[in-house]
Design goal:
2 domains, six-stranded mixed sheet, 44% helix, alpha/beta
Length: 356
C-alpha cells in the first residue's frame, strides 16, 4: 500500500479484544519496529502523530492504525516503503520484542515522568484502572448477547441460500475481474475497516477513497451471503496472484470476511447492512441468492433478533464511551507527571531516524 490509509488492528468483539498486531511487521522480511511503552496520557499517540506528520512533509506514504477505544488516538504507524513501524506496545495489544535491538527498539516513555506525582495519586489511579476494565467487560457482554442473535439469523439465512448459484456468480465475477491464475499466490493482510467505538460503528471511509476507484457493495442485512461470497472472491483473487486486504466484522470476527480490497486493481468489495451504508459504483443484492419464501417463514424471528441486536450494540457503544471517559480521567494524573518536551524531542529524533 503506497497511499496513506487508515485501519484498525484491534477491535472490541464478543470474544473480548481481538488483536491483529501480529500483522504489523515481519522480522524475517527486514522490518524494524519501535515499540512505545508507558501509561495512559504519556504521549504515545502524539509521538506517532509527530512521526506521521514528518512522513507527510517528506512525501513518504504511511498506514495509520487507529485505536478502537478512541478513534482520535493512534495505536501504530506503519511505513511500508521503509519497512519500519512505530506502535503502542501496551495493553490490550501488548507487543514485546522478538529480537531486541536487532529488530525492535523499545522506547520507554516512563523515563520522562515524575513517579512521585503518580504515587501521590495511587488510590485514584487504581480505582480508575479497575473502573475502566469493568466498562470494557460490560461492552463485551453486550456484544456477546448481540452476536448470539446475529449468529442465529446468519444460520437461518445460510439455510435459505443457493450456494451453487452464489459460487457460479463468484466464478464469473472473478474471471471477468481478476483474470486467469498466474501461477503465483498473492499476499494477504488482515485489517479491521470498522470497529465498535465510543462514537458508534466507526468506518474508515477515507481508506476506500485512498484505495479504490471501484467499489462493489454487497447489500446483505443478514451477513451470510456476503461472508460466503467474499470468501470465494478472496480465494480467486489470491489464486490470480493478486494481493488482498481482508477485513473481518468486529461483531463476529470469525464468520468470514466483511470487506475485501484488491489494491492492484483499486477495487473494494464491502458489505452493507443496518450498521453500515456505502455509496458504491455497483451493487449486488444478497436476495438474488436466497429463497424469498423460505426467508419469509422466519420473518418474525428475524425481525425480533435484528431489532434486539441493534439495541444491544447501542448498549455496547455506551459502555465503550464510559470506558473512554474513565480513561480520559486517568490520563489527567499521568499528564501532571510528564515531561512532554522530552517526549517531543525523542519523537523528532525517531522521525529523523525513520526518514534517514
Amino acid at each position: 500500500m503506497t497511499e496513506n490509509t487508515t485501519f484498525f488492528l484491534g477491535a472490541n468483539t464478543p470474544f473480548g479484544f481481538h488483536s491483529l498486531f501480529r500483522e504489523l511487521y515481519d522480522p524475517a522480511d527486514g522490518w524494524r519496529a519501535y515499540i512505545l511503552k508507558g501509561g495512559p496520557g504519556t504521549g504515545k499517540s502524539t509521538f506517532m502523530k509527530t512521526v506521521s506528520a514528518r512522513c507527510e512533509e517528506a512525501g513518504v506514504g504511511y498506514e495509520t492504525i487507529r485505536c478502537a477505544s478512541d478513534p482520535n488516538s493512534l495505536d501504530a504507524v506503519r511505513i511500508e516503503s521503509k519497512k519500519i513501524c512505530i506502535a503502542d506496545g501496551t495493553a490490550p495489544h501488548v507487543l514485546e520484542p522478538k529480537c531486541p535491538g536487532a529488530v525492535e527498539t523499545v522506547l520507554d516513555l516512563s523515563a520522562f515522568w515524575d513517579e512521585a506525582v503518580l504515587r501521590e495519586n495511587r488510590g485514584e489511579i487504581l480505582r480508575l484502572f479497575a473502573e475502566n476494565a469493568s466498562a470494557h467487560r460490560k461492552c463485551v457482554r453486550f456484544l456477546q448477547a448481540a452476536e448470539s442473535l446475529s449468529r442465529d439469523v446468519r444460520r437461518i439465512a445460510l439455510g435459505c441460500t443457493d450456494t451453487d448459484k452464489l459460487e457460479r456468480y463468484a466464478s464469473r465475477y472473478a474471471s471477468r475481474t481478476f483474470g486467469v491464475p498466474r501461477g503465483i499466490v498473492g499476499q494477504e493482510l488482515t485489517r479491521f475497516l470498522s470497529a465498535v467505538t465510543p462514537e458508534g460503528i466507526f468506518i474508515h471511509r477515507d481508506t476506500l477513497d485512498a484505495l479504490c476507484d471501484e467499489v462493489l457493495v454487497i447489500e446483505d442485512p443478514y451477513g451470510a451471503v456476503s461472508a460466503a461470497l467474499l470468501s470465494c472472491l478472496r480465494r480467486y483473487a489470491l489464486g490470480a496472484g493478486l494481493d488482498v486486504i481482508v477485513c473481518p466484522c468486529p461483531l463476529h470476527p470469525d464468520a468470514g470476511p466483511q470487506d475485501l480490497f484488491v489494491p492492484q486493481l483499486r477495487l473494494g468489495i464491502v458489505t452493507e447492512n443496518a450498521f453500515r451504508r456505502f455509496d458504491g459504483t455497483s451493487k449486488v443484492h444478497a436476495s438474488r441468492f436466497t429463497d424469498a419464501a423460505a426467508m419469509r417463514s422466519h420473518r418474525s424471528r428475524i425481525t425480533f433478533s435484528r431489532r434486539t441486536e441493534k439495541e444491544l450494540v447501542e448498549e455496547a457503544v455506551s459502555a465503550c464511551a464510559d470506558a473512554l471517559a474513565i480513561h480520559n480521567e486517568l490520563e489527567t494524573y499521568y499528564k501532571r507527571a510528564m515531561d512532554y518536551d522530552a517526549v517531543t524531542r525523542l519523537a523528532e529524533k525517531t522521525a529523523a531516524e525513520v526518514l534517514a
